[in-house]
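The following record pairs a protein chain with its ligand, 2-acetamido-2-deoxy-beta-D-glucopyranose.
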Amino acid sequence: MAAVLDLLTFLVVLKSACCAQPRPAQDKISPIINMQLDSRKKTLTWTYTRNVSDQECTIDTPTAYSATVGPQVTEDHTYVCTFPNSVLHRGANLTVKVTCDGDVFLQALTFANPGREGSGAVNFSCLIYNVRFMNCSWAPGPAAPADVQYRLFSWASRHEAEAECVHYILGPTGTRVGCHFDQLGEPQRTDNYFFLVNGTSRETAIPFLDFTPFKAVQIEKYDPPRNITITYNRSHHIIRWEHPEIRFDLSSHMLYYELDIQTPASSPETNRVSISSFLCDLRARARKAGGAGGDLVPCSLTIWAVGSQPAP
Ligand SMILES: *[C@@H]1O[C@H](CO)[C@@H](O)[C@H](O)[C@H]1NC(C)=O
Ligand SMILES: *[C@@H]1O[C@H](CO)[C@@H](O)[C@H](O)[C@H]1NC(C)=O
Ligand SMILES: *[C@@H]1O[C@H](CO)[C@@H](O)[C@H](O)[C@H]1NC(C)=O
Ligand SMILES: *[C@@H]1O[C@H](CO)[C@@H](O)[C@H](O)[C@H]1NC(C)=O
Ligand SMILES: *[C@@H]1O[C@H](CO)[C@@H](O)[C@H](O)[C@H]1NC(C)=O
Ligand SMILES: *[C@@H]1O[C@H](CO)[C@@H](O)[C@H](O)[C@H]1NC(C)=O
Ligand SMILES: *[C@@H]1O[C@H](CO)[C@@H](O)[C@H](O)[C@H]1NC(C)=O
């Protein structure tokens, strides 16, 4: 009898040990682990400890840029969200939201750009010129230590490895303040350039500077029109010019010339004309302005490039 009672006690203990397990509490533990941000590739990665559904990730940056995307999964069960258009150098909050066993879990990661404030590069800009060259330039930040040295990295797509600048342009003190690219490759209308400027100093870490993608077609600077000729056919002065060679095919309506006709008797008059040759009756203009009719007056041409890349 005692033995039977003992066995009963044993069973009861076993049973309560089994069912006193804090199962619901276990479920409240987030299934998201190993959340990591690659600030260069702008990818957030993580893995799960349990099966989930309804996943999304969100990035918030101080420039009020907020984006929510769905993740992709790699072969080794790593989940990836990519934010190619986000700028991370002012810091970012990243959040992964998932549903797991009916509960919603939010896991956040706060990213801060390391280094002394104001020591990173500032005033970064790039331009493409002479069809196949590109120059980028920047200035040392106002709080940059004297020994700061900057490095520029560029890549053309998310899948491409970054390459460091080959021809740096140096400022008067030997600090790198620009980069000359002499091998831009075959142009595509859709070309984008991605840049990162970081730096080193013995005194402090230097924050990096990153950007939204630069659209190559918007940073091309055109040469002046070529082969300008002015002819006079006894009633009209005819000014003709040829388009400069340009890297990207633009439909002609995107390119405007501005003609600044300066007559001796008046302030400059400006005409905005569309592309191709432009007929200009200089004699009439000169007369209207009170000048001597029929005299050839000098013409100068300036060119407008449409859409320049805004500063970051
Ligand atoms: C997750 O789901 C898959 C298929 O739906 C299943 O084979 C696997 O056992 C589940 N894993 C966990 C940890 O529940
Ligand atoms: C991240 O979130 C914290 C807390 O909500 C907030 O104080 C901070 O400004 C946020 N940072 C960014 C970069 O949005
Ligand atoms: C950066 O550009 C701004 C605006 O053009 C200018 O005021 C500032 O002096 C520049 N900073 C440096 C370090 O060149
Ligand atoms: C680009 O940089 C090179 C190398 O410093 C320089 O010779 C050239 O004048 C620059 N061109 C433009 C358009 O800024
Ligand atoms: C600068 O960026 C490059 C490219 O991502 C990286 O390899 C290098 O370690 C960075 N340097 C510093 C000092 O962070
Ligand atoms: C300039 O235009 C004239 C007249 O159309 C032409 O004969 C000449 O070949 C052109 N020169 C160049 C360098 O294109
Ligand atoms: C001069 O050229 C203009 C434009 O082609 C034409 O309208 C005009 O009749 C020409 N004048 C003479 C005298 O040929």
